[in-house]
Amino acid sequence: MPPYVFQRGETIAVVLEAVGATAQDIAGIEVTAVLKRAIAQRAPAANIEAVAEFDVSDIASGSEVDPGWLLRIDAATSATIAPGVYITNGVLTLPGGDVEKTEPLLIQIEEAT
Asked: How far is Cα of residue 84 from the mean position of the Cα atoms in its chain?
């Protein structure tokens, strides 16, 4: 999958969709996500520091969309991130305490024009 492309200084927003789920299916799931510099378009080691943390908000299901989560980094934080290719994934903590991770998403930050 090609990366999502954003310019420095603009809000970074991506959606994690719970395809085929209902709001009840995902109730009680806590989601976190951080942005790290990708290494050859792959996830870096766990000990590599994140450049930003996403604010996560729930997306309610509707007649045309599945429920999920909006991952967002505000424009002020985005302005501090150097151009390059980054990676993120959602870390889902289920109500029973089990942890699952989503597939990674690549995010490319370009210099603002």
From this structure: 16
